[in-house]
Design brief:
Blueprint (H helix, E strand, L loop, with lengths): L4 H13 L3 H8 L3 H11 L25 H5 L8 H5 L8 H15 L1
Length: about 110
C-alpha cells in the first residue's frame, strides 16, 4: 500500500484521537503492521497508560523458628551406591576359571 498525504493526515488525526492501530488499519484498509510501521517512521508514540489498579504488595512469609530439639536429632548417614559396589570380587583359582569357561562353551553349542 502506498501512503498518500491524505492517508497520513487521517492516520495522524485518528492516532491523536486515541484510536488503536487495529482500528486505524481497518479504516484505512491496510494491515495493523503497516500502520505501526508508519507510526514508527513518523515518530508518533503514545504515552504510557496509567495502571488500572494499584498492585497489592504482599509481605514475604515469615519463617517459623525451628526448635532446638529438631536440630539436635542425628541425621541418618547416606551411603552412596559406589561405596557399596566397591567390594572386592571373589577370587577364583585357575582350575575354577577353566571349568567355568568350559561349561560356558558347552552351553553355547
Amino acid at each position: 500500500m502506498g501512503w498518500h498525504a491524505n492517508d497520513i493526515a487521517l492516520l495522524n488525526r485518528l492516532w491523536s484521537a486515541g484510536q488503536s492501530a487495529a482500528q486505524i488499519a481497518r479504516r484505512l484498509g491496510c494491515s495493523r503492521n503497516a500502520v505501526c510501521g508508519m507510526l514508527t517512521r513518523l515518530g508518533l508514540k503514545r504515552g504510557h497508560k496509567p495502571p488500572t489498579a494499584t498492585p497489592k504488595i504482599r509481605p514475604s512469609p515469615k519463617l517459623r523458628p525451628r526448635s532446638s530439639a529438631a536440630c539436635a536429632r542425628p541425621v541418618a548417614r547416606k551411603v552412596s551406591r559406589n561405596t557399596a559396589e566397591r567390594q572386592q570380587p571373589k577370587e577364583f583359582s585357575k582350575q575354577q576359571l577353566y571349568s567355568m569357561l568350559a561349561e560356558a562353551v558347552r552351553n553355547t553349542d
